[in-house]
Amino acid sequence: MNQLDLKRIANEVRKGIVTSVYSAQAGHPGGALSSAEIFTYLYFQEMNIDPKNPKMEDRDRFVLSKGHVAPGLYAALANRGYFPVEDLKTLRKLGSYLQGHPDMKRIPGVDMSSGSLGQGISAAIGMALAAKLDEKDYRVYTLVGDGEIQEGQIWEAAMFAGFRKLDNLVVIIDNNGLQIGGNIDEVCSPYPIDKKFEAFNFHTITVDGHDFDQLKDAFAQARVIKGRPTAIIAKTIKGKGVSFMENQVSWHGAAPNEEQYIKAMADLEKAGEVLC
Asked: Does the domain spanning 3-274 belong to CATH 3.40.50.970?
């Protein structure tokens, strides 16, 4: 798939994020929007998956450690064909299978229920270790937040992954610089992120998380690294694609009203027209 096609899909993912959060009048649009290209590249280019067979034994696995940005994952899954795009409008509604955090028991394509920050990476590492023990060649990917890596369990897990030389594991850090309490370097700075992961025997790569060429090169590099896991530090913009949400911490966990929804969708429609 070429870069233009991926950009178009990422824009559709963003539309799904905004629509679902607006419909729910609840959710976390900022970090979901910053991760749109990451979700798109994983599900449309990188991972060995089959929407018609979500439990395929040798599929690659993905764990959304920062589970509150589920609207981004759901939009990617829907556009990939796991379930109808129209269902995104049922986000957080009573009886819907698309709740505020991913549920592996109810949602096709979700490999791990998540949402307790700091814990998803441990589940991903368990999957990667299982692949090694079973002599399987599937790969495991996990997306964590840059605020989330303030959690101590992240580093306990990283120590284990590096020690066990889990080269089938890729940890992606959505480094948008903002968390619910403000700038990450003012709340509790995790910098330098690359040096910390390197200390735990990770190969680290820093990229523009909105650039598909850079993402392609990073994931390709991760595939040839042997004897250690990879951490991809993706520099992103919180709220990316919606003019009034970009780099605004207030959109970490807020839903747009009708006027804001119309403006947001107009921004994304305009972006889509440029890609045609």
From this structure: yes
Tokens of 210: 């909105």
Closest by alpha carbon to 235, among 147, 174, 145?
Answer: 174
* Segment-wise mean pLDDT, segments of 10 residues, the chain, 276 residues: 96 98 98 98 98 97 98 98 98 97 97 96 98 98 98 98 98 98 97 98 98 98 98 98 98 98 98 94
**Residue 95: DSSP 8-state:** T
Distance (Å, rounded) from C-alpha 128 to C-alpha 155?
A: 17
Q: How many residues does the chain have?
A: 276
SS3 (DSSP) at 36? helix
Strands 140-145, 169-175: pairing is parallel
The model's pTM: 0.97
Compute, in degrees rounded to 10, the torsion defined by CA atoms 212, 131, 124, 10: 20
pLDDT at 114: 96
Q: How far is CA 68 from CA 42, 58, 93, in A?
A: 18, 27, 16
C-alpha–C-alpha distance, residues 175 and 72, integer Å: 16
Q: What is the reported pLDDT for 1? A: 87
Phi and psi at residue 127, in whole multiples of 5°? -65, -40
**Domain-by-domain residue ranges, the chain?**
3-274
Nearest to 236 by CA among 203, 204, 220, 214: 214
First to last CA, the chain: 15
Strands (DSSP E) contained in 25-81 are: 61-64
Place of tokens 């979901």: 32
With residue 14 as reference, give the H or E element that holds it.
Answer: helix 3-24
Of 190, 184, 168, nearest in space to 30 by CA: 184
Angstrom distance (rounded) from CA 103 to CA 140: 18
